[in-house]
Design brief:
This protein has 157 residues and is mainly alpha-helical. It is built from seven helices and two strands. Helix 3 runs antiparallel to helix 7.
């Protein structure tokens, strides 16, 4: 459960960054929660959990598209679902192409979003950091999160 729904896209980007090189499947359900959240979480009920399970099952079975997607959203709003799933399906296509070095640069830049600081921390030239961010699709990943936050805000808040 997340206190602010608009935080979901930033959390997805953080999870993808922190858990490299793992290829995470992420399912997000928007809806009500019927019980208090307590372990074991795999037994929790309510619309949000049911929809999240549906979303992750859609990713596992490759039901969303004819191309591989690692992220899925499910809610009662079909237009929202189609839009977010397409955005993240395309997003995931980019994510699969990012190298380990590019992920390292992205992760370091996210922690301290300044080219000079990132370059110094990674012991690279600023131009190399800039190139790694560009080739690692950082700017697209960042914009995806911003647009997705806005879509969530307009759809649910």
């Amino acid at each position: 459960m997340i206190a602010s729904l608009t935080a979901v896209p930033a959390i997805i980007l953080d999870l993808r960054t922190w858990f490299q090189p793992l290829s995470l499947r992420i399912g997000i359900g928007f809806g009500r929660i019927s019980d208090r959240i307590q372990p074991p979480v795999n037994r929790l009920g309510g619309e949000a959990f049911r929809l999240a399970r549906f979303a992750i099952d859609s990713v596992k079975r490759g039901r969303l598209f004819k191309f591989e997607s690692r992220t899925a959203f499910a809610s009662r709003n079909d237009h929202f679902n189609r839009t977010m799933n397409l955005i993240y399906g395309l997003h995931d296509t980019l994510v699969r192409q990012i190298t380990a070095k590019q992920w390292e640069t992205v992760a370091t830049f996210i922690e301290s979003p300044a080219l000079g600081k990132t370059a110094k921390r990674l012991k690279l030239d600023i131009s190399t950091v800039s190139r790694n961010l560009k080739r690692g699709y950082y700017w697209q990943l960042s914009e995806t999160a911003k647009v997705a936050e806005s879509l969530i805000d307009h759809s649910f808040l």
